[in-house]
Specification:
It is a single chain. This protein is an alpha/beta fold. It has one domain (5-210, 249-257): TIM Barrel (Alpha-Beta Barrel), CATH 3.20.20.100. 40% of the residues lie in helices and 16% in strands. The protein has a 7-stranded parallel sheet, with helices on one face. Strands 1-2 form a two-stranded antiparallel ribbon. Strand 10, helix 6 and strand 11 (202-206) form a beta-alpha-beta unit. One of its GO terms (molecular function) is oxidoreductase activity. Keywords: Oxidoreductase. Residues 17-285 form the NADP-dependent oxidoreductase domain.
């Protein structure tokens, strides 16, 4: 069994399987979640199922994900909320996804998320990506540092940044957490993960269970995973989470779901104990930037 909790910065200790709320939006992450009552019910079930960390972003909807979370859970007893800013959407099509790094825009984004969520201060706020070219990266991180000094946010995170950007950011402000694509089949965020863990930060892999989405032909991978999962009487999804939890006590997966059954399965991954040999066999299935 792995450690069950993790501390973000010095302020928030949470259970090591969080909840990625992105799926509680409309199709293609655009507009409100169509089953409004069902979304509220799922969010309200989180605490009794052991979840105390929720990951969202202003671009999810946009905005509808944050407002749904507030309607369901405010004032968030024993919950830690993370949100993000810097991505923008111009419509239903993903081709309209863009990046803005203007420090004034980032300040506005953080304060609007603060308002939508009904918080006095955001526990963890991520720069959503390092792609923006309208402002120097240093100025973008500087905007978050200023927001932290002012108390608008408590901890700074970086999402989808390069290892070089991560190093630059650490010279400007303390970085409590990073998040990037990392799972059994796709290790794109591997370098960022290792750097974050080496510095004592928290790494949250997104798409932690999406093996089939990561590779066109996942059959050879499942030829390894299926027997291991069967030996523990768990699903391959639970195995994917358990593997991540065994890699480091500083890893905080944030699987998303719209199903209470799947939520319970995700949380049960905390109770899975893998052998060192099993972890090594799974780890050998892919390398950094290889799918």
């Amino acid at each position: 069994m792995t450690s069950r909790t993790i501390t973000i910065g010095t302020t928030h200790t949470v259970t090591r399987v969080g909840f990625g709320a992105m799926q509680l939006t409309g199709e293609q992450v655009w507009g409100p979640y169509p089953d409004h009552a069902g979304g509220l019910a799922l969010l309200r079930a989180l605490r009794e199922e052991g979840v105390d960390f929720i990951d969202t972003a202003d671009v999810y909807g946009p905005h509808t994900n944050e407002t749904l979370i507030r309607e369901a859970l405010h004032p968030y007893p024993e919950l830690t909320i993370a949100t993000k800013g810097g991505f923008v959407r111009g419509g239903f099509d993903y081709d309209t996804l863009g990046s803005i790094g203007n420090p004034l825009y980032l300040r506005q984004s953080a304060k609007m998320s603060l308002s939508r969520l009904g918080l006095d201060s955001i526990p963890l706020y991520y720069l959503h990506n390092g792609y923006a070219t309208d402002a120097p990266f240093e100025d973008q991180v500087g905007a978050l540092r200023d927001l932290q000094i002012e108390g608008v946010i408590q901890n700074i995170g970086l999402s989808n940044v390069t290892i070089e950007q991560y190093a630059i950011a650490r010279e400007i402000a303390p970085i409590a957490a990073t998040t990037a694509l990392f799972n059994i089949a796709n290790r794109t965020g591997g370098a960022l993960m290792r750097a974050t863990l080496a510095d004592g930060g928290v790494f949250s892999p997104w798409w932690p269970m999406s093996i089939r989405k990561s590779v066109e032909n996942a059959t050879p991978i499942f030829e390894v995973l299926d027997p291991i999962a069967a030996s523990h009487d768990i699903t391959t999804g639970q195995l994917a989470l358990a593997w991540l939890l065994h890699l480091s006590p500083r890893i905080l997966p944030i699987p998303g779901t719209t199903s209470l059954t799947h939520l319970r399965e995700n949380m049960a991954a905390l109770d899975v104990t893998l052998s060192a040999e099993e972890v090594a066999r799974i780890s050998a299935l892919a390398t950094d930037n290889e799918a």
